[in-house]
Amino acid sequence: MEVFLQQLINGITLGSIYGLIAIGYTMVFGIIGMVNFAHGDVFMVSAFIALIAFLILTSWLGITSIALALFIVLIVAMLFTSLVNWVIERLAYRPLRGSFRLAPLISAIGMSIFLSNFVQVAQGPRNKSTPPMVQGEFVIFTQNDYAVTLSFKQLIIWGVTAVLLACFWYLVAKTRLGRAQRACEQDQKMAALVGVDVDRTISMTFVIAAALAAVAGTMYLMYYGVVSFSDGFVPGVKAFTAAVLGGIGSLPGAVIGGLLIGLIETMWSAYFSIDYKDVAAFSVLAITLIFLPQGLFGRPDVEKV
Amino acid sequence: MTTPLLSVRGVKTFYGRVMALKGVDLDVSEGEIVTLIGANGAGKSTLMMTVCGNPRAREGSIAFAGRDITHLPTHEIARLKLAQAPEGRRIFSRMTVLENLQMGATTAEPAEFERDLDRVLALFPRLKQRIGQRGGTLSGGEQQMLAIARALMARPRLLLLDEPSLGLAPMIVRQIFDAIRALNKQDGLTVFLVEQNAYHALKLAHRGYVMVNGLITLSGTGSELLERPEIKSAYLEGGRA
Ligand SMILES: Nc1ncnc2c1ncn2[C@@H]1O[C@H](COP(=O)(O)OP(=O)(O)O)[C@@H](O)[C@H]1O
Ligand SMILES: [Mg+2]
Asked: Among A301, B21, B96, B215, whose CB has the most other CB atoms within 10 angstroms?
């Protein structure tokens, strides 16, 4: 019971990170029908941006308030990662629009390799670590000498994710940009006919996807304290699994899929074998694709015409 | 003589290597209802979409309100207040009726949204009852009303309507044609209407064009065209229902 509760807490934390990344997969797929293979690497790049920003803030500028530093790091990571993804879309995907279907996909794989290699060369092949940013925890209760804890780091991740998801939901559901984005998802030709700049809306989708990935990247860095150039791949595939499990194209599906993958992974580690935790997530991907290809919240394709 | 609001000159449009428009000339002046009739596959919808830049004319020129729009991106053409209710209605089916109307107002002044909304809902009261419903759940007639209402939300100077009567019950068709007539009479709205329902369209329009195989073959006032024997035999027999 106490192990289960602890894993629940850990799983939700991990799942929040996956969910934030999964939204990027699902949004980009929704609007241009492309699986953005580079998205995991964009997440990894954001963690490096966060790392560099954190080091600059604390060692050079001497900011001592961790809360303030974290807040600035988050904003900086979101801004720069958005910029990176905006440039990627302009250079690597937009010129291929209207080309054959696989072209952007291949370009995305190339971009993924480029990003991880670039970071490997620029930052070195070894793990980069930060001094611990946040320490301390609440002990929720103790039973059989096992303390169920909720660390401050986890609490921050829950809080930041909840706030960002609320902002994101508002953006998509209630604003002009969100409406334009949904319109482009459904019918780009019609969206252009009513005056929506479709290319700009697609750009903004990449910007938003990157901003959320940067939140995940910053949280990941704070949680684990290390990041390496190869850290884009596995979280990327897991977040992609989350998006597929939730039903690719569905935003709530991405969040719930992320939480489920996080929970499956931590429960698997606790009750079966930690060595095979990645296998668990990939098995879910395979099983979903075979038995539930439209995912949990996949939209029914039959719409009245 | 004043220059027409829309003028199409020698326009050729291709789908791949197939020429769908073979050199079309056509004018629509301010305040007019102009109709374009022709058989299925003649190229009517292609012309409507070419005016909006998708597909693009490979030859010829299109001017709107004195400005050359032949090479302008589609969304910028829309910003010049040229709105279209396209073939097949193209409602945003997973968005509500209200959101569809908000999309229609993309190029309009946000401050005037409420007033414009009241205006189109007064024109199509059925939409008012459906305002929170998803577009995809509306009936065909309601979707057509929504498509027109969405176009009107832009406060267009020119409204392009592509077969608004297609697949609708005669009573709904009458409602829609009455609405078009009222908009033209009261607000001076300029309308370019594509129809297969030639009888009703020619009755409604000031002028008409006939398209055959990507070319304009006849033009004249609505009543002139109604009297032409070749029109009677090709488009009107049995079409009077
Ligand atoms: N997207 C398209 N791709 C290829 N050919 C098309 C396309 N749309 C229309 N056509 C062809 O262009 C011609 C004109 O079609 P269209 O403009 O839809 O005619 P209408 O609206 O008068 O029925 C037809 O021969 C049609 O098959
Ligand atoms: Mg047509």
From this structure: B21
Q: How far is CA A257 from the centre of its chain?
A: 12
**Cross-chain Cβ contact B54/A191 below 8 Å:** no
Q: What are the start-end ranges of the H helices in A175-250?
A: 176-186, 188-193, 198-224, 233-246
- Compute the distance between CA of residue B5 and CA of residue A80 in angstroms, rounded to an integer: 47
Where are the domains positioned within chain A? 2-232
To test the ligand 1 pocket, which listed residue (B45, B51, B87) has its Cβ within 8 A of the most ligand atoms?
Answer: B45
For residue range A271-302, what is the model confidence (pLDDT) as tens digits? 887 777 788 888 888 888 888 888 888 765 53
Pocket flag, ligand 1, residue B13 (CB < 6 Å): no
Of 3.20.20.10, 3.40.30.10, 3.40.50.300, 3.30.565.10, which CATH number belongs to B6-81+157-236? 3.40.50.300
| A301 in contact with B, Cβ within 8 Å | no
Question: Is A303's Cβ below 8 Å from some Cβ in B?
Answer: yes
CA angle A244–A249–A250, rounded 5-degree value: 85
Query: Which chain B positions have a beta carbon within 8 Å of A197's beta carbon?
Result: 73, 75
Is the Cβ atom of B17 under 6 angstroms away from ligand 1? no
Entry pTM? 0.92
Residue A305: what pLDDT?
A: 31
ipTM: 0.94
